[in-house]
Amino acid sequence: MKASHQERADLRLLHISDTHLFGDGSLHYGIVDTTAALERVLAKASEIEGIDAVVLSGDLSEDGTEASYLKLRDLVEPWAAVHGAQVVYAMGNHDHPDAFTSVLGDRTRVHTIGRHRIITLDSSVPGAAYGSLDADQLAWLRDTLSQPVDLGTIVVVHHPPTRAVTPLLRRLELDDPHALFGVLDGSDVRLVLSGHYHHPLVTLERGIPIVVAPGVTNTSDVATPPDTERATVGAGFALVELPASGAPRVTVVSAPSPRDGEPVFQLDAEGIRQVAESFGAPRRGEP
């Protein structure tokens, strides 16, 4: 019998990101059925015991419709209920703030799970793909963290506060990660969970573990030339286990389909430049 979280000092999280659902069932890039990909992820995770929370770290919708968020909620929340897990949603750059809030709740929020705390941030920038956290949100985070909790805090933010691997995503990063770490330094934050990069990544920044979940929609190819951005069919999730003290243990799990590895898109240097100029952060010194 599973012990209640109140009786346990560890935390086990199912970390999912970048579901990119459509309200009308459209295919992503005309290729990927994102609803079916999420269903595969949940089916693959269904035998894992002791999940305390399902954390979805942004880009939950592709079309920004209420229908897409209702579809997400109707898939994830019954699964979580069966497993006795809370559900934590965070905003991404593809998400629509009004529809997200209407269906899933506040874009910044504090969740308490036993002796742990999970805080969601909103790093989205309207009309853009890069991330940013404004002064008001950072002040709210600082105020919230001023009261530590027993076993520490997990922060969920879509844009990872760590360098991207692929050339396009380097132009679509979190604009000022140092401002975020200025708030996290000296706090009880033990872990940051992110998405956006569409491939798994685990690293340390300023002594804080950063875990980027693989994408549900597709997988960014990190083994490309420096002037190429490529994605292939592939979906997965991260199982994150946080002990009472010490480093998290992260296991990356794929949810395979017969089409895994098929190309979804590929951009050359000019395509990367065009997307970055349209949706990336302004270069320093530019308006």
Structural features:
six-stranded mixed sheet, 14 strands, 287 residues, single chain, Purple Acid Phosphatase, chain A, domain 2, alpha/beta
Task: Describe the protein.
There is one protein chain. With 287 residues, this protein is α/β, with parallel strands linked by helices. It has one domain: Purple Acid Phosphatase, chain A, domain 2. The protein is 25% helix and 24% strand. The protein has a six-stranded mixed beta sheet with strand order 4-5-6-7-9-8, with no helix packed on it. The mean pLDDT is 95.
Give me the secondary-structure topology:
Elements: E1 11-16, H1 34-45, E2 53-56, H2 66-82, E3 86-89, H3 97-104, E4 109-113, E5 116-120, H4 135-145, E6 153-156, H5 167-170, H6 177-184, E7 189-194, E8 201-205, E9 208-212, E10 219-220, E11 229-232, E12 236-242, E13 249-254, E14 263-267, H7 269-279
Parallel strand pairs: 1-2, 2-3, 5-6, 6-7, 7-9
Antiparallel strand pairs: 1-12, 4-5, 8-9, 10-11, 11-14, 12-13
